[in-house]
Amino acid sequence: MFVINCKNYEEISGDKIIKFVKTAEKISKKFKVKVAIAPPQHLIGVVSKSSIPILAQHIDDSKIGSTTGFIVPELLKKSGVKGSLINHSEHRIPSKDIKKLVLKLKELKMISILCVKDVAEARKYAKINPDYIAIEPPELIGSGKAVSTEKPELITKAAVAVKSAKNKTKLLCGAGIVSGEDVSKAVELGSKGILVASGIVKSKNWDKIMSEFAKSMV
Length: 218
What we know:
By secondary structure, the protein is of the alpha/beta class. It is built from 10 helices and 8 strands.
């Protein structure tokens, strides 16, 4: 699983998100790698009919109806969105909400990607069986330093922690992945995919960097 979080970067603002997603579609097909994109929330509708999974960056434990400003999972599904990130380091939420939202996405047959900051959280939340757990040490996010090289033991320990839950949860590696070499190392250490952001979105050549990452996964 190759997940790209676009955050609220200016590089994909407006209709630039369309070119970005089309590039990802091409790379996914070429390398036979599952690529998913999490665009800024206000641009989801622009690309929700893509041939690759479009994810929300955040969801709320709110219901359809009088819930102004909240992001409701059921409505996202009706718009073609395939799942969501939960508890990203830049949008942390309480543990009770995490559990409710993982369950909600499971009920809706949507993809849940639960972000954690350390091995202890990976072990704790693997028990609630999200589809993916993405480990991303906050100090490495956007640093240009990869967790696979700066803290390789974190990936191996997280992989063991996730596996110990004995369910279908898979580990993704996040934070600071900037090259194909970083991707290969993460996979070698036990990750089943990657969660990346600035390393892709801020690149001058999306096609080239997505190809490099996808090729390194296979």
